[in-house]
Write a structure and sequence with these properties.
Radius of gyration: 18 Å
Strand order of the largest sheet: 1-2
Helix content: 25-40%
Order of helices and strands: EEEEEEHHHH
Mean pLDDT: 82
Number of helices: 4
Strand content: 15-25%
Distance between the termini: 40 Å
Largest sheet: 2 strands, antiparallel
Number of strands: 6
Length: 166
């Protein structure tokens, strides 16, 4: 981490352009966790789990291929001078986990029959909702699907089990 004698320009509100907040559910207790635009890691006020804000990406599925695009780079990708070492390392480690999850999602999508687009699009949406969850797909998302659409759930479960056990 570099030593920024003049301080981090990102901590100066003159440089901060977006004061909006983002709310995500805690992966452990589902309590709403609020992030400001410049925050990447916040402790859940309910269970004290570290929750990471993951910048939205565009996930496209076309021609049988899954493509991730649109991820904005932040100062943390090259500096991290505004954070303590532990937070910076946690965020870097989380980015690695997200990259692995993206690789796993691509492998999962590639294992699905290309004609079963309903399953493919379910997994893409479930991935978006499960981004902070340690597992590729959050169990809660599967439980909701089981109640709402049992036929789709059976197909999803079979593909997911084959992927996990394969």
């Amino acid at each position: 981490m570099p030593d920024l004698k003049a301080g981090c320009p990102g901590q100066n509100t003159a440089y901060l352009k977006n004061f909006e907040t983002n709310i995500v559910p805690c992966p452990r207790c589902a309590h709403e966790v609020e992030f400001f635009s410049d925050e990447k890691k916040v402790k859940c006020p309910e269970c004290h789990t570290n929750v990471f804000k993951v910048d939205a990406e565009i996930i496209e599925y076309a021609g049988g291929k899954l493509v991730f695009s649109g991820e904005d780079k932040s100062c943390l990708d090259w500096c991290g001078g505004c954070l303590n070492k532990e937070d910076y390392e946690d965020i870097k480690e989380n980015k690695k986990k997200i990259e692995k999850k993206k690789t796993d999602l691509k492998k999962l999508i590639n294992s699905i029959d290309k004609d079963d687009e309903e399953v493919i699009y379910f997994f893409i949406e479930a991935f978006r909702k499960s981004i902070n969850n340690p597992k590729l797909i959050d169990e809660k998302t599967l439980n909701i699907l089981q109640k709402k659409n049992p036929g789709l759930f059976v197909r999803v479960r079979n593909y997911y089990l084959n992927f996990i056990n394969g």
